[in-house]
Amino acid sequence: MADHARDEEFYTRDRPAHPTLAEDRPRGTAPKAPAKHRGPWVTVAIVAVLVLLVVLGIALFP
What angle do CA 50, 56, 62 make, to 5 degrees? Predict the structure, then answer.
């Protein structure tokens, strides 16, 4: 029992008077605008460019 009292005293020594913090991202609010998703052709184009770069890299620097 005595150890428990000393633990409480130790941990409350440096604690501020009101230890609760304001929430940095309040919950329950709706997003301002819906997220914009890229179309499937943009994704296909990015993948095609990456594959082309790899193939050209292998072909030019064997």
Answer: 130
Two structure tokens written together for 46: 């990015």
pTM for the predicted model, two decimal places: 0.43
Q: Region 33-40: what's the mean pLDDT?
A: 79
Helix spans in the chain (H): 2-13, 40-60
Please report the pLDDT score of residue 3 as a whole number: 65
Residue type, 55: V
Q: What are phi and psi of 7, to 5 degrees?
A: -65, -45
Residue with tokens 């150890």: 3
